[in-house]
DNA sequence: CGGTCTCTTGACGGAGTTCAAAGCTAGTGG
DNA sequence: CCACTAGCTTTGAACTCCGTCAAGAGACCG
């Protein structure tokens, strides 16, 4: 809870009273490895913040059954299907624990109420939304612009703390590359 | 201006007085074919709504000088670098008119003021943001999941009104495919 | 008409996939 | 403490999708 508040205070100011109110809106939840936070077709009822652990969001390729990774999220990240949560409509994604994960959650109704009681949070969540949007835009352009090897090394640079916690085949899927090819890239550059 | 207001009223309610206030915040602007709305390195000072015309947002591949299309936008769409506009920081994209384009614009300061005077608009712009975010997420997963041919036909289905107004090589770049390959796809399926 | 912009076509090559098998590694239970 | 399993990574060989280059064919516009 403290790291969440710290995260928020990096972007907006909250009074001590607001912080107390804030804390009461959230509940803790634990997912064991392999457990689902959300399944394709369900509505995302909670906004979830990761205290510790790793989650993956993906959808299933209907042709070959492969998982296509939308995002990988670790400690101090949000892991919510924003479209599904904000419109309370069915999600097309699955979100699943890669390892045991501790969350802080808030339901959709409570979320609205919280924003009314602590208006500064409107700004915080807008900032989060916009910065996520910026990374998505970059990812799209980047995907078209660079080759597998460059994408892979850029990922290593940008998300070193994810790399050390998830298997390579998930990173491969995130990047739209085959796991085997990442293996070959690594082999090629072992000297360095 | 009327189509913009119609667009907004599809998502939130505005009183007649609010609509009057709203109109006063916006100014008209015309871009000739080839003119830039924004250049890489500049800050995006205006939020821009397209009354009529076509814009492309892209960045330049430093290796071969190619344009990598981030988005193509036509009548009744927004065409703003949201990250750059909301943080008032330098943009990494270019936005340029594909044909003569009429815009409605509002500066960053005025935008903030407008939101204060017409609070319902907070909701409207959040909805726009979230739905754009949803399309970006889908585009990422889709790009990794499908082959060139499927991506191309999906684009034809999803954005028929863009297809009829921009050259094929821009659509190719948007999809991360070569223009030549799209030509081959079309040839292959000419019978249908 | 002549020039510019866009689309098409062909030949070739390369980046990356697929499939199957083998090698690792870490955890688990006996 | 060792053996076994399950999950992950590596490797090899064949294959394919798609990009690149270069040239030509339309199409549009002054």
Tally of alpha and pi helices of chain A: 9
Estimate nothing, just give the exact number of structural domains of chain A: 2
CATH class of the largest domain in chain A: Mainly Beta
List the uncertain runs of chain A.
none
N/C terminus separation of chain A = 41 Å
Order of helices and strands of chain A: HHEEEEEHEEHHHHHH
Structural class of chain A comes to alpha+beta
Which protein chains make the most extensive interface, counting residues with beta carbons within 8 Å of the other chain's beta carbons? A-B, 28 and 28 residues
Radius of gyration based on Cα positions of chain A = 18 Å
How would you state the average pLDDT of chain A, rounded?
96
CATH topology of the largest domain in chain A: Jelly Rolls
Architecture per CATH nomenclature, i.e. the level-2 architecture of the largest domain in chain A: Sandwich
Helix content of chain A: 40-55%
Spatial order of the strands in the main sheet of chain A?
2-6-4-5
Largest sheet of chain A, in brief, is:
4 strands, antiparallel
Q: What is the CATH superfamily of the largest domain in chain A? A: Jelly Rolls
Per DSSP E runs of 2 or more residues, the count of β-strands of chain A stands at 7
InterPro entries (chains A, B): cNMP-bd_dom, cNMP-bd_dom_sf, RmlC-like_jellyroll
Protein name (chains A, B): Crp/Fnr family transcriptional regulator
Pfam family, one (chains A, B): cNMP_binding
